[in-house]
Structure formats: C-alpha cells, structure tokens
Design brief:
heterodimer, A: mainly beta, B: mainly beta, four-stranded antiparallel beta sheet, 11 strands, 0% helix, globular
Chain lengths: 114, 112
C-alpha cells in the first residue's frame, strides 16, 4: 500500500526566506508524485508533478521539487517566500498501475511573516 | 480549461436524511474521485470511479455510496446522514494516472 508523510503540519517563514516543505512517500511501484496548493475556501490547484522524466521539477509561482528515489522524498522548495504563498500544501502519490489510486498527505499550512 | 463543478458550496441537512452531492466535469475524464477533508487529516478518499458504472471503495467508504451513470457526472450519497459526516467534500477528475487531478471548489456539509 502506498502512503505519504508530510513533516510539519504548520511551517512559518519570513517574507523573502527559503520555503522548504517536506514530503516522503512509500510505494511498491514507480510512483507519480504531485504537489497541490489550497487557498481558503477553494479546491486544490496543481503546483507541479513528477512522472518519471527529469528529477528536478519546476512548477508555477516559482516552486520546484526534487524527486530522490534513494530517500523516497519529493520536497517542495521556493527560494524566496512571498506573502501570497500563505496557503495549505498537499503532497500526493498516484499508483502507476492497478486502479491508479491517489493518496494524499495530511497537508502543511504555510504562514509567511512580513 | 478543465472545470469540475460541485452542485452546492454549502449544505445543511439533518441527521437521518439521505443526502446527494453532485459533481460534473466537462473534459471527458475517465477517472473521478470523492474525498472528504478534515483539519489535520488531509484528504481521505471515499470512493473513486475509473469508468462509467465502475467504482472502487477508497479508504473510508462506510456510510457512503456513489453513482456514475454518465461519464461526466459522479454523485456521492450519504444513505442516512450522521453528525460525524459533517465535513468538506471535494470532487476531482483525472484523465490518466500520470495526469494531475482537477478539483471542484468543495461542498461544506453540516449535519445537525
């Protein structure tokens, strides 16, 4: 069975500081990995995805993530936080076979301090 | 652009009622999903459908059922609503497993 662990339910950074949101996964087959962002009272929007091409994936709004198979990690980073980045972020893994089930992490709320 | 539309943003129902949540997508996607979202628990999969009239249980199917009679529509049914089903419900659709899901804006359901 696949699973996703997001370390830290709340993360605070100063405006202009590095953002690092952690995601570790387990999967018995090569996974597809995604990061989504959720603003208050909205659904989830895709930030970026890894589907077995380049291990460093660039997404929208200056975010990127690196797939590290040896560490089973897919951490999300952004060099310089902006106030508009305050939101909740979810990491998700999708099976590449079978019923292609998607499993989400429990989410990390990012607070940006001016 | 893909649009996933959930029929209600806010819904208030009473204990024991049968509740229907509707979701429609406009991009001919094969897969559709229903999640519930609770603080600290993230998104938990209730049911998903990989084709018309096909469905699979997710992680928390108890107390719920689903219907997918047409490709664009996926309905979640609370057979007899209970207070512990008060939650945010999110619908999503997807083309294939290596493609991202597209989400509706959610239905905040309160069971009194």
């Amino acid at each position: 069975a696949q699973s996703v662990t997001q370390l830290g339910s709340h993360v605070s950074v100063s405006e202009g500081a590095l953002v690092l949101l952690r995601c570790n996964y387990s999967s018995s087959v090569p996974p597809y990995l995604f990061w989504y962002v959720q603003y208050p009272n909205q659904g989830l929007q895709l930030l970026l995805k890894y589907t077995s091409a380049a291990t460093l994936v660039k997404g929208i709004n200056g975010f990127e993530a690196e797939f590290k198979k040896s560490e089973t990690s897919f951490h999300l980073t952004k060099p310089s936080a902006h106030m508009s980045d305050a939101a909740e972020y979810f990491c998700a893994v999708s099976e590449s076979g079978g019923y292609q089930k998607v499993t989400f992490g429990t989410g990390t709320k990012l607070q940006v301090i001016p | 652009d893909v649009k996933v539309t959930q029929s209600s943003r806010y819904l208030v129902k009473r204990t024991g009622e049968k509740v229907f949540l509707e979701c429609v997508q406009d991009m001919d996607h094969e897969n559709m999903f229903w999640y519930r979202q609770d603080p600290g628990l993230g998104l938990r999969l209730i049911y998903f459908s990989y084709d018309v009239k096909m469905k699979e249980k997710g992680d928390i199917p108890e107390g719920y059922s689903v219907s997918r009679e047409k490709k664009e529509r996926f309905s979640l049914i609370l057979e007899s609503a209970s207070t512990n089903q008060t939650s945010m419900y999110l619908c999503a659709s997807r083309d294939r497993s290596n493609q991202p899901q597209h989400f509706g804006d959610g239905t905040r359901l309160s069971i009194l």
